[in-house]
Amino acid sequence: MKRLSEATLADLSVAVRRPVYDRAQIATGIVHLGVGAFHRAHQAVYTDDVLARDPRWGIVAASLRSPDTYDALEPQNGLYTVSVRSKAGESLRVIGSISRIIVAPEAVDELLGIMAHPATRIVSLTVTEKGYCHDPATGVLNEKHPDIVHDLGEPRRPRSAPGLIVEALRRRHAVGTPPFTVLTCDNLPSNGRTVKRVLVRYAELIDSDLGRWVESEVACPSTMVDRIVPATTDEDRARIGQILGARDAWPVVTEPFTQWVIEDDFPQGRPAWEVTGAEFVTDVEPFEHMKLRLLNGSHSTLAYLGYLAGYETVAEAMADPAYERLVHGLMDEEVTPTLHMPPGSDIASYKRALIERFKNPALKHRTWQIAMDGSQKLPQRLLGTVRDCLRNNASVHRLTLGVAAWMRYVTGIDETGAQIDVRDPMAARLRTLADRAGSSAERLAGELFAVREIFGDDLPKDLRFTDAVTVALTHLYAKGAKRTVAEFTSTLS
Ligand code: CS2
Distance between CA atoms of 172 and 204, rounded to whole angstroms? Predict the structure, then answer.
């Protein structure tokens, strides 16, 4: 079978949408750090729509670690397929907005050169929560993070996202080029403010003058990004190749739903992403809370409890009526009262749509994938909500069941005694704490509450929280996840 590329674009199956602009005329206006599946199914698609009207906003995308995406897409001239799947079927579209991919560790100077070029007006990021090298509980730069230690020692050859951004900004500052806008598209709380805090601190450590310039001149608008994008499987590749009529080494598979809410703060200009459905607002925070707490909070809860019960995907977990009841209860009783949405927002229909999205039978979104990096995700997905509930003297039983399931998960041993492949930057430390606790729920909870990067200083002191987690964990050990969820949901409703 032919390979997808510029040369074969015209031969693709007629039903496949493809770039309607001349890719040779596209200039680079955006450098994107972290060219994973999410970026390719989200921002790159919005930008593809814009390029048909405005050729200034092509994307140069960088992988910060692995050459895998480069190896897959370079022979395809950066082209790849987005497959949108639901029970209604599948539709394919070839995206052309990524003109080039750079593997940062192999070409750091070249990447920095493009970031520092005056035509680059936005540096966007999807580097996942851990890519910001911050303390998840406080949002402050972790100055002992190995990548930060490396970059502070060798600031002209950085490997972290903050290191790359600040070095590119330094080069711009040195020659009087205005800074680019830093556009974070990761699921962090107040993501713009968090990235700004991290960048200012890192810059200060390099040079106090640079720190002040970053503080006063660099815009870091917050965003709420939303689209479910499970990891691509070989089955996806084979199926998509057949429909496309060409082999695509790395297509991405996603759902029909997509949302992007952006704070409108782009001093150097921006693409008209609103023409393709992005919403520009003055305050993203309410939308971000809604999404992180309802969608991602439920996702993580389903991931840990689902994995422990042997459910491989979110849709499988949602097919268990008790799990669905748990998600309804979590969203309606515990999360919704903590949200402060602008007038006119329809939270009820957002939640209804979410349930349907979780049940999408055409997406094989693995619980194991969502369970990754829990130490970085728990604070904004569950613990912020817990704090608000405690402040209101409201119930936290479902939230704490999710936290307890995470604790059970990071022990690294599942309910059948098999190993769990726990992927988390803190995995080794969490495992040591779990081993020390043995199989006592109370000891395990106690050991893990003491990880202040996750729980902060306040939650471990609040008995309403610690007791509820410990009780839930005791149930998980005694009865397993499936029965615990069934019993919890029948007594709570
Ligand atoms: C998921 C998210 O993997 C995860 O942790 O919760 O990637 C989720 O699918 C997206 O945030 C949806 O917008």
Answer: 16
Taking alpha carbons only, the member of 154, 155, 53, 37 closest to residue 98 is: 37
**Interatomic CA distance for residues 132 and 137, integer angstroms:** 13
Choosing from 259, 281, 303, the residue where a domain stops is: 281
Q: Supply the residue whose CA is at minimum distance from atom 9 of ligand 1.
A: 228
pLDDT(493) > 70: no
213 CA to centre of ligand 1 in angstroms: 34
Residue 69 is part of a domain; what is its CATH number?
3.40.50.720
**Structural domain that includes position 454:** 285-492
Between the CA of 370 and the centroid of ligand 1 the distance, in Å, is 7
Measured in whole angstroms, the distance separating CA 193 from the mean position of its chain's CA atoms is 16
| Sign of the C-alpha dihedral computed for residues 10, 12, 14 and 18 taken in this order | negative
153 and 292 inside one domain = no
What is the number of structural domains in the chain?
2
Beta carbons within 8 Å of 231's beta carbon, 6+ residues apart: 37, 366, 369
Instruction: Give all strands of the β-sheet with 252-254 in edge-to-edge order.
Output: 89-95, 80-86, 252-254
- Tens digit of pLDDT for each residue in 346-396? 999 999 999 999 999 999 999 999 999 999 999 999 999 999 999 999 999
Domain boundary among the residues 281, 311, 328 is at 281
Distance CA 157, CA 167 (A): 8
The rounded Å distance from CA 228 to ligand 1 centre is 6
Judge whether residue 492 has pLDDT over 90. Answer: no
Would you say residue 163 has pLDDT above 70? yes
| Nearest atom in ligand 1 to 229's CA | 9
Query: Model-level pTM?
Result: 0.96
The vertex-132 CA angle with 299 and 229, nearest 5°, equals 35
3-state helix, strand, coil in the chain (%, to 5): 55, 15, 30
Q: Is residue 1 part of a domain?
A: no
Distance 7 CA to ligand 1 centre (A): 35
- Indicate if 258 and 293 belong to the same structural domain: no
- Residue identified by tokens 């693995």 is 366
The separation between CA 460 and the C-alpha centre of its own chain, rounded to angstroms, equals: 27
Question: How many C-beta atoms surround the C-beta of residue 277 within 10 A?
Answer: 12
Close Cβ partners of 421 (under 8 Å, ≥ 6 residues apart): 368
Distance CA 68, CA 70 (A): 5
Mean pLDDT of 234-240: 97
Write down the pLDDT at residue 344.
87
Pocket of ligand 1, beta carbon within 6 A? 187, 226-228, 295-296, 299, 369-370
